[in-house]
Amino acid sequence: MNIKDDLKYTKDHEWISVSGDTATIGITDFAQKELGDIVYVEVETEGETLDKEEVFGTVEAVKTVSDLFMPVSGEIIAFNEELEANPEFVNTDAYGKGWMIKVKMSNTAELDDLLSAPDYKALIGA
User: Fold this and answer.
1) What are the strands, taking DSSP E only, across 10-106?
2) CB 88: neighbour CB atoms within 10 A?
3) Residue range 97-126, pLDDT digits in tens
4) Cβ atoms of 8 and 18 closer than 8 Å
5) Are 55 and 108 in contact (CB under 8 A)?
6) Residue 74 maps to a domain
């Protein structure tokens, strides 16, 4: 299982990569394995400002649909449109081509509440 040391994680299995006040968010390798084959990613919140832990979209696998939660507050400034035609990128490259949204963070202090890679490994028993 791939858990990258340079990312932050949530208890809901999202990852976040930060560059300045912009965050890139997706679901973890663990989450995509638990869900199985991803068939659809829906994000209709682009351009909206959401609070931490609000639902920003859903990910649909063959057998289930799961909500996606904001790890930090901010405005969703981009959606990975490649996922519309290739949702399997979430399965094959969760931390690369499988990214889901980019967020202009409104409160970077919220990053302190997220899990480090060792903390996330402990959460999932890795």
Assistant:
1) 14-19, 22-27, 38-42, 49-50, 55-61, 65-69, 74-79, 101-105
2) 15
3) 999 999 999 999 999 999 999 999 999 998
4) yes
5) no
6) yes
Domain with 46 in it: 8-120
Whether the pLDDT of residue 1 is over 90: the answer is no
pTM of the model: 0.96
**3 state SS of 83:** helix
Q: For residue 2, is it within any domain?
A: no
Number of structural domains, the chain?
1
CATH at 67: 2.40.50.100
Q: Please indicate, yes or no, if residue 47 is contained in any of the structural domains.
A: yes
pLDDT at 36 over 90: yes
